[in-house]
Fold this protein.
Amino acid sequence: MQKENKVKVSVIGATGYTGVELVRLLLKHPGVEIDTLTSESFAGKKISEVYPQVKCDIVCESLNIDKISSPLVFTALPHGKSAKVVGKLFDRGVKIVDFSADFRLHDAGVYQSWYGISHAREDLLSEAVYGLPEIYREKIKQALLVANPGCYPTSIILALAPLLKNKLIKREGLVADSKSGVSGAGRTPTLETHFPEVSENINAYNVAGHRHLPEIEQELTKIANENVTLTFVPHLIPANRGILSTCYVDLVKKMSTEEVLDIYTKFYGKEPFVEVLPPGFFPHTREVIWSNRCRIGLYVDRRDDKVVVISAIDNLVKGASGQAIQNMNLMCGFDEDLGLE
């Protein structure tokens, strides 16, 4: 593909973990050219000075919305800071893939109750398309604003969607136990993510309510077309990257492992990045790191008609930057897997 035919893209917030992962993937994408990278912490430095493993000499700039001229922009900013930036870009007709939580929830009141701030562009909530291609592919193709899903929600929604869509499980009493590598907490250092605190340790956190919970319940409810509640407990593990989610749900009728797996195989049969494992096999995080894949294994306990569904993703790729490129590919008319295999 000739350079003049490439789509120019910009990354706002390029030096966080998801930002630099996005830059790494974009550099290998044959259909795009990076136009602008912004970073408030490292303005004036080449991205390769901040991350020497990334061979890119583009100099990071402080954010100036008026200087962003590319037709598609990735916004990798914290929640609360993204909404105003996204709003200004949207008003100019720019296509946006937003990494924050600012446009994932449909209800501004729910957003305020979980994030503690009022929404700066409530008028755009109805415009945003939830960026999970396996569920919303056709809407993403037409979208101007895509809300890239959270990492935990991606792993859990993909694990449970076939069962809820086919109304095979009870909507109450769903449990998701998720374990994430430390990069999911972001690059800003905290006591909880300090190496001596994380090493040789596993701990549950936000047990009373993680901010991803309303996002997960919102999407599972839409898939089921009925109200869904979930008990969600995240854990921090001594690994850099990867998420393993183990979900426990109750069947509404007796089924075998093979019968449930057949439903998953049909549901995800044409999906380029979801792999359903055969009976007796379950995913490991090491199998998906650095990839945009989600691997799913499951088991039916015939004693109490409970299904155990286990999914594994890389929190920085399928849980963030790879999925963002998957969304960009759909928005720009590229093959969905371009630059991701």
Notes: The chain has two domains: 3-127, 151-315. The radius of gyration is 20 Å.
